[in-house]
Structure formats: structure tokens, C-alpha cells
Amino acid sequence: MSSKTCHPRRQFIFIKTHKTGSCTAVNIFQRYALLHHLSVLIPTGGNLLAWPFPPAEQDYVHTPEEQYDVLLNHVVYNKPWLRSKFPANTAYISIIREPSSQLRSAFNYYSLPRLLKIQSQNPVQTFLQDPWKYKHLSEAYFDFCNVTWDGTRNFMSFDLGYPTEGAEDKERAHRYISELEADFRLFLLLEHLDESLVLLRRLMCWEVRDVLYDIVSKNNRSYPYKSYIPTAQELTNLRRWKAVDYLLYDTFNASLWRKITAQGPDFYEELRYFREVKKRVGTFCRTCKQRRRCDPPSLTIEASKWSRQFAVDSKYCSRIQSQELLLGKYIRERASKEDRKEWTIMRVADNVLRIVQGLPTVKYKAQAE
């Protein structure tokens, strides 16, 4: 499907879930918003919009008409609030990941072993032997907003609006995920990111250049248990413990392949083309970075069945290689809005450490200073 035969979708919300590869994916949406001068709903201060609560009036920059084209930040999916700020035809997109790998990443990043008081060399293995043993510790209470969050349990579902308290309610979970199927245009899957992005390009009627990404991970970390593969019994325990996240993942994994099948056989031709172009662009941009200049000054990607001809230059390379914070800064500067530090939202990881230390959680970083 060529973008010549359809009209690009330029209103979209990317619900940036935690520890799912969303830092890599958000670069695509940030670049698109910058390229097309779209109206982005941006935080008043910092790079976090609101979590785990809907944004208050002082948390985001208002436009005169109170309508926006794009949202790109961590925010718990809240359908009524989002519908009040974005056009009815806005495309809702998110990214999810196989739950056991998401758990390992969350354990490391959010200092969950400290929260759970696990001191073993492989805290994930220890936890998976009996997750219910740690329930009284894993359920972290954010007192400033009266919300309970469990970073070990259904973290992705929580980001998508499902409450921690519903972990055992299978009927409620099925109903909610059915609602997400109706609400969302697409869920990207980290394990099948190339396939997801080719499908995204087709569904959004974008250009191939829009959905390329840097093959160097944006937020990659090393830790001892990163490659740990749970035993069959541990996976059984995890499937019971993270039942809603597994239902979420299984549902949208199946949905992805149904949508791909509906695209027809040339989808896989485009997928091969996409991977070839991604490799060429990645090599060119890495060389530019190593040499601190592009020589030759640009790389021409010839026109194809799926793409018009386009050039990759130093500006394109700089943006595709940029971290989320830097592109967020460009978006803010383009909107001519001051970064008001006093309204910077406290990071989840920092609030978890406050809980570990016996301190109350806070909404704004300034409240902890």
C-alpha cells in the first residue's frame, strides 16, 4: 500500500507504556510531529505529563482552543479526559512487550528488589517461585493521589487504565481489553517491532522514512538477570500473577497477525524492503556520527512500490539518533513554551525509592527538595 493512495493521519496519541521499548518507538512519533508542525500536548514542566493520574490543569500547556493533534508522554490511558482534548478521529497507539521480559526490565529499573526486600543474586527467580508471598510489599500506595500500583503484576495494563485492584477479576479484565481493542488503532509489539511499524505505516498512511528507527536502543541497560529464562513452573506462576498483562499481550499479539494477514502477501515484500532500508540508513547515520559529519552529505533512498524517493542527511540522522528528552526539548522550543521546573512530575522510580525509604510519595519533584 503506497501512501500516494490514501491521506496521512496526523492526529494521534501514543500511550507510552513503561519498560516496553517505548523510548525507541516514541522517537518515531516525535519526529513526525516535528516534521509536520503538529500541535503537541506538552507538560508544563519536564518530560512527564502525568502518572498515575489524569493531568491537572496546571500540568500541561494549554492552547487557546484546548485542542491538540498529538500526545507522546507517559500517561495512564483515561478515555474521557483524552476524548475531551483530541478530535474524534484521533488514532490511539501504544506498545507492549512479552510480560516476563517486561518484568525483568521493571525489576531492574524501579529497584523492585529493594521494595520487595529480596537480596538474592537473581531476584526475579526468587520472586517467581512465589509471587503471592510478596503481595503486601509489591502493592505500592501513592498516597498523594490515592492510587495503588504494583510494578510486578499488571504494569502494562495499569498504564492502559486497568486498576491494580482488578488483578483477580477475569471478567472485568476481558471486558476492559475488549474496550481497548475498540479504542486503539494499533498496539506495537516490541518482539515484532519491524512488522508493527510496517503495519503502522500502512494504517496511518505515512512514508517509510517516517517509521524508520535507530537500531541502537534508546534506553538499554545491563543487569545480571537480564537474560534469565524462567522455568516452566515459574512461567506458570507468572501467568497467574500477571494474568491481565498476559491477556493483554495475547490479545494484541493475535490482533497484530490478523491485521497483517488482512494486508495481503505484499506486506512481507514491504517488510523485507523496510529492513533493507533500515540497515542502509543505520549504517549511514552511524558513520556520520563516528566521523562527526556526513560524507557523502546525504544518502538517497530510491523510490519503491511503498515509498517515494527520499534523502537521509545529517539532520535526519541527528533526529533518529536523538534521545526522547532532546526531541521533547525541540518540541517545547517550537511551541515557544518555557520549561517550568516547579511543575516537573516526579518519576515513578523516584517515588518507589521514597516508599523504600519510608517517605511519602509526591506528585512534583519540587515537593521532594
UniProtKB/TrEMBL annotation:
Gene Ontology, cellular component aspect: Golgi membrane
Locations listed in the record: Golgi apparatus membrane
Molecular functions per Gene Ontology: galactosylceramide sulfotransferase activity
Membrane topology according to the record: Single-pass type II membrane protein
The protein, known as: GAL3ST1 protein
Homology family: Belongs to the galactose-3-O-sulfotransferase family.
Pfam families registered for this protein in UniProt: Gal-3-0_sulfotr (PF06990)
InterPro entries per record: Gal-3-0_sulfotransfrase, P-loop_NTPase
Alphabetic keyword roster: Glycoprotein, Golgi apparatus, Membrane, Signal-anchor, Transferase, Transmembrane, Transmembrane helix
Gene Ontology biological process: glycolipid biosynthetic process
